Amino acid sequence: MSNYKEQLKHIHTLVFDYDGVFTDGVVYVTGDGRQPMRTSHVRDGFALQKAVKKGLTLAVITGGKNSAVIERMHQLGVKYVYTHVDDKEKTLKVLMKSLGINSENMLYMGDDLPDIPALELAGLRCCPADAVEEVKQRCHYISHCNGGHGAVRDVIEQVLKSQNLWMNEYSKDDME
Amino acid sequence: MSNYKEQLKHIHTLVFDYDGVFTDGVVYVTGDGRQPMRTSHVRDGFALQKAVKKGLTLAVITGGKNSAVIERMHQLGVKYVYTHVDDKEKTLKVLMKSLGINSENMLYMGDDLPDIPALELAGLRCCPADAVEEVKQRCHYISHCNGGHGAVRDVIEQVLKSQNLWMNEYSKDDME
Amino acid sequence: MSNYKEQLKHIHTLVFDYDGVFTDGVVYVTGDGRQPMRTSHVRDGFALQKAVKKGLTLAVITGGKNSAVIERMHQLGVKYVYTHVDDKEKTLKVLMKSLGINSENMLYMGDDLPDIPALELAGLRCCPADAVEEVKQRCHYISHCNGGHGAVRDVIEQVLKSQNLWMNEYSKDDME
Amino acid sequence: MSNYKEQLKHIHTLVFDYDGVFTDGVVYVTGDGRQPMRTSHVRDGFALQKAVKKGLTLAVITGGKNSAVIERMHQLGVKYVYTHVDDKEKTLKVLMKSLGINSENMLYMGDDLPDIPALELAGLRCCPADAVEEVKQRCHYISHCNGGHGAVRDVIEQVLKSQNLWMNEYSKDDME
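^ Those are the sequences you sent over. The predicted structure of the assembly is below.
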């Protein structure tokens, strides 16, 4: 765990799965041919925007096909958004190569089996509290928050805090 | 329970009710004449797709009238989707006959009274943790997951694991 | 409580508030002028249909303004649906008079302050587990289910069971 | 805490953040360019209307951009609704000045970091049970209710009760 605290300081790229990480895994289906609706959490959104402002690189890789996810992630400043992805490992390898990202500087958060090969590329492997067992077994850090209920915020907050970039503009008090 | 573990190995057909099994039973009603919206879970969807790939036969029988359910189930590979069903027992008997399915090879998962007669046709009777009492009393296996929160995934995962078909492509590690 | 069990046998009219009783009180607001979306539960719907079939009289009285509520309640067989109601006591008194309903044959379920005067007209006063304190204090029966999570089903089931009208068509077994 | 009870009596202006206070922080995103959907709770709505009737001044200040929030808040009688706000402290200072509001007569409820500078302007600082740690540390009162699950109702009810304005029209009984 002290190792985990140390690793946080070297993270400058954060890669996330979408469903089950930004959401609780529920999709809402309608009967009129529209795309399923998905949830998103304002506190995760706030953390994403803060991370972008502080210079971190953010990516989302999902097997989902929802254009609203792309749109919302772009609005929040996430530069690299991949949807319709069958092989997350392959997509992540291409991204790492093109941006010159090393494993030890990369955090990955996922919740289910298709995340495992991509997760194993990251120096810091994280998952929500309600990830499946096989994912949990491979993670350095299991958030106390469920997917869609603060798991993304939790890891971004920890990375930024470890680098003294979290709470320095909201109060004159010294916040810790 | 050892009997239950043994039965899992012989299942090749899985039949599900929709509302209360794939969902928590909530439907979302709007005021503009559109069909009510229903939830669906990505982890259940992932398990369905995997089951289809591994050669299992999947069916959904629901009293509901939502065309989005049909569409989504078909997208995920569920071949037999019956909506508007008043008498689930009758529908299931016809399906069993036309496909030549024996009771001992069939699992049924339902949550409420209208499922009981169909449930009783199955060799392996399952329900979500939050099924009604009368259904629970008749089941061989009560999932630890609620409807809409992993109950479908739970039984598919157990069937595939019992047949060594679950976790063999996501990692080089021996997972068991 | 034995009194409560006795009273159940004489109920033939059930009157419900909508928000907080059929739902958890959440409404979903969109930005395009459409009516807010509301939840509904399939198990409550099943119980309503059963109650209608067995000859009970059902009414919904709500301050809400959602036409989808009217539509869905009518589909499920609820004959008397009043929306936009400011004074529930007055509406209920008119209904009782026109149908000749006596207090001792009427059950009312509500969850919040505006329900209190109407609730006090009923011989059997019920509320969901998460009703406000002032309502709970006035009830003969507080359901173990929250609003939107089975509270309606719970009271309908108890009325029908007390009159031996609940589980007589789903199985050859004696269910009691 | 006795201090808190005393302060309640002097509150005549209540200022709220929206996301995470009126809601659980979840927004629902669709894929067809429509505004994200947000939740709202009928019991909060009832309390808002009551507060307006009793002469309290209500304001909502949010960084969100949803026109449905404005519309619904206006319908419920909230006179001052500010959306798209980057700097809540600045907006609140302008409001306080233009209406001549003193700190000791003002309650603020928020849940996340961007609320802190505005929160610190209020004589009575409140937050939902699930506010972030940094906000909780600065509050006089932490509601036992989560955002979107009664937190707004809770503080309005307490203010009105402290001023003997809460339960005086729903029953002939003395409720206290």
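Chain D touches chain C through 23 residues (CB under 8 Å). The helical segments of chain D are 2-8, 42-53, 67-75, 88-99, 116-119, 133-136, 151-162.

Shout if you want it in another format.
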